[in-house]
Write a structure and sequence with these properties.
The protein is of the alpha/beta class. It folds into 3 domains: about 190 residues, Rossmann fold, CATH 3.40.50; about 55 residues, SH3 type barrels (Roll), CATH 2.30.30.280; about 80 residues, Translation factors (Elongation Factor Tu (Ef-tu), domain 3, Beta Barrel). The chain contains 8 helices and 17 strands. The strands form 4 sheets. A 6-stranded antiparallel β-barrel has the order 12-15-14-13-16-17. The protein is globular, with a radius of gyration of 22 Å. It is an enzyme of class 2 (transferase).
Length: about 350
């Protein structure tokens, strides 16, 4: 075949299985691990153990392995926006930024510098070409699908990307790794943000951004003061615990007013919304549609897409759902599917209540 593919080896089972499959398909495979955090990091997904496991997989497969330092761009492109979003009362999605700027940005830049034809990862997503256009599709195993976090990709990206696991289940990927004697075959999945220990983002902010602790009022949707909060950075839409409010009826965070330094609470029904506004919209096929698009949208990673209309307006759009959706959070991502094809996505922006 004579085509070189660089595979991002994270030290986990998925990237290991992807490398094995591509090697057996006849590609010249090169493994690379992006070191995006300090060497002393202990999180399972990105510490020294992960690097060692990636090297062991590469050695077992008989492919070269490289370690590339991306700590500074990761800090600037992922960590700082994550912190700033919370300070501004938003709920960020750092994995989407990491995909755009690190996994499919910096890693592809490095791959090109090495003369590679393709870049591959162990993500569960599919790319298919139809009539000269590249379609980004949900994985066949919808429970593992990761397309939601890839809405920033375009035609030039998809042209050189390969996702060997898009048609497989997690169990099948483990079987592939096990049958080839790879050390990562039974390694557990990481369930935490790589730079936030134990997913404790509040503790992370207190340590790294102490200016987040600016107390203010907790108010209801009519503006009545009900209590005090510790800082808007520590609250997200839909949150119920930690509000410190008494009363017979449960209250939830329904909004955050950065200008007034207020956390707004309301009933469960008030957390639900029929629509949201999105910005920095990307259309995977390129261009901006002239008319509204019908399809299924999602506003959180762990939800099934729900019937909706996507109404474009340049690099912004409005998403209107058929039925109310729970806790649409500014700062998160909204995407639109038509069947299994990811059509568009953008960042949810704050709206006045």
């Amino acid at each position: 075949m004579g085509k070189t593919v660089v595979v991002g080896l994270s030290g986990g089972v998925d990237s290991s299985a992807a490398a094995a499959l591509l090697l057996e398909e006849g590609y010249d495979v090169v493994g690379v691990t992006m070191r995006h955090l300090p060497a002393e990091t202990t999180n399972s997904c990105c510490g020294l153990e992960a690097i060692v496991d990636a090297r062991r997989v590469a050695k077992k497969l008989g492919i070269p392995h490289h370690l590339v330092d991306v700590e500074q761009p990761f800090f600037e492109r992922v960590i700082v926006p994550f912190e700033e979003a919370y300070l501004n009362g938003l709920t960020p999605n750092p994995c989407a930024l990491c995909n755009r700027y690190i996994k499919f940005g910096a890693m592809w830049d490095w791959a090109k510098s090495q003369g590679a034809d393709f870049l591959a990862t162990g993500h569960y997503v599919r790319v298919e070409e139809e009539n000269g256009q590249f379609l980004l599709k949900r994985a066949l195993d919808h429970k593992k699908d990761q397309s939601y976090l890839m809405y920033t990709l375009g035609q030039e990206d998809l042209r050189h990307l390969k996702f060997p696991l898009g048609g497989l289940t997690k169990a099948e990927s483990r079987t592939i790794a096990e049958s080839r004697g790879l050390v990562t075959a039974h390694k557990p999945d990481s369930q935490e943000l790589c730079f936030v220990p134990k997913n404790d983002y509040q503790g992370y902010l207190r340590e790294h951004r102490p200016e987040a602790e600016v107390p203010g009022d907790v108010v209801d949707t009519s503006g009545q003061v009900l209590g005090r909060h510790q800082g808007i950075a520590f609250y997200t839409v839909g949150q119920r615990r930690g509000l410190g409010l008494a009363g017979a009826e449960p209250r939830y965070v329904v909004g955050i007013d950065r200008g007034r330094n207020q956390v707004i609470v309301g009933s469960r029904a008030e957390v639900e919304s029929l629509a949201c506004q999105v910005e920095a919209v990307n259309y995977v096929a390129g261009g901006v549609p002239d008319l509204p698009l019908a399809g299924q949208a999602k506003v959180r990673y762990n939800m099934e897409p729900a019937p909706a209309r996507w109404i474009p307006d340049g690099d912004q759009a409005e998403v209107r759902f058929d039925d109310p959706q729970w806790a649409i959070s500014p700062g998160q991502v909204a995407v639109l599917y038509q069947e299994d094809v990811l059509v568009a996505g953008g960042k949810i922006r704050p709206t006045s209540r």
